[in-house]
Structures are given as C-alpha cells and as structure tokens.
C-alpha cells in the first residue's frame, strides 16, 4: 500500500513540472523548463519561476511574459496548427480580437474565437499546389524547348558542315579552272 502511495506521489510531483507556458515556440521551450528560477532570455535578470506569465513584466526583454500583455516589447507565439505559425505583439493577448487563427491569444478573454487554421491552411495549400502545378508545367515546357533547341542546333551544324564542304569543293574546282600564271 505504501508503495502505491509513493508511486502516486511521485507521479503527481513529476507532472507538476509540466506546467504549460503560453506564447512560446517549441524552440524556446528549453528556456521555460519549470525550475526554482527563470533567467531572462537576454540574461539580464534571474527571477522566481512563479513570476513567469504572472501579468507583471520583470524582464527588460519581456521574456518572462510571453503569454500575457504585461511587457511592451513582448512577443506571443501563435502555434496555428494546420496553418503558418507566427508571432504577434504580446499587447494583443486577451484584447478581445482574435489574432491567432487557433485562438490561443484569447485564452482568458470574453471573446470566443473559432479555430480557423485548418481552413486557412487548406486554402494556402491549394494555392501552393496550383503554383507547383504551374511551375511543373513551366519546367516541362522549358525542357521541351531546350530539347527542340538542341535538335535545331544540331541540324544547323550539320547544314553548316555540308555548306562548308560544298564551299571547299567549289574552291577546289575554281582553282582547277583558273589559268595558271
């Protein structure tokens, strides 16, 4: 019985470390592993980790508030699964306007945003596929023109050789018919 309690206690404590920090890209997650303290990304200040996303700007670079609008220079990362991820100024977080197509910027707002990322992504993918088809057709036509040009060049080279041979033959005949001096 004690073993089960110990396992449950370890599991609960272990999962406490995985608190989600809003507004960061996966490439920045390494800076936000929950520890006792958080070092501002610019290295300027060390603060307790509880002060990350507490709606008060402690770091000059705004890195302690990626998920709130507390810092004037802060940036919020929109994951936008199914579409293009991008950053928005953190001042737009929970402002009542849906800036991220996945609605992640309005997590604590009275506005209910719809996740439109898949539809936006579908339209963009269709556009890109159309461009790829056009590019493929253009490359096919270019290759066709190159091949036709090579054939034409070879034909013209053969004609040139024939004409040069005719010119040489005529030059020889001309020399034969000239009176000797």
Helix and strand layout, with pairings?
Layout: H1 2-16, E1 37-39, E2 46-48, E3 75-78, E4 86-89, H2 117-177
InterPro entries: Gtb1-like (IPR039794), LDL_receptor-like_sf (IPR036055), PRKCSH_N (IPR028146)
Signal peptide: 1-18
Protein name: Glucosidase II beta subunit N-terminal domain-containing protein
In short:
By secondary structure, the protein is mainly alpha-helical. It contains two helices and four strands. A two-stranded antiparallel sheet has the order 1-2. It has a two-stranded antiparallel sheet with strand order 3-4.
Spatial order of the strands in the main sheet? 1-2
Average pLDDT works out at 88
How much of the residues is beta strand, in percent? 5-15%
Helical/strand content category:
mainly alpha
Order of helices and strands: HEEEEH
**What profile does the largest beta sheet have?**
2 strands, antiparallel
Identify the overall geometry.
elongated
Domain Glucosidase II beta subunit N-terminal: 8-165
Pfam family, one: PRKCSH-like
Keywords: Disulfide bond, Signal
GO cellular component, one term: glucosidase II complex
Account of the 3D structure:
Helix content is 42%, strand content 8%. Strand 3 and strand 4 form a beta hairpin. It has a two-stranded antiparallel ribbon with strand order 1-2. The protein has a two-stranded antiparallel sheet with strand order 3-4. The protein has 181 residues and is mostly helical. The longest helix has 61 residues. It has a domain of 114 residues. The N terminus is likely disordered.
Question: What attributes does this structure have?
Answer:
mainly alpha; 4 strands; 181 residues; 8% strand; elongated
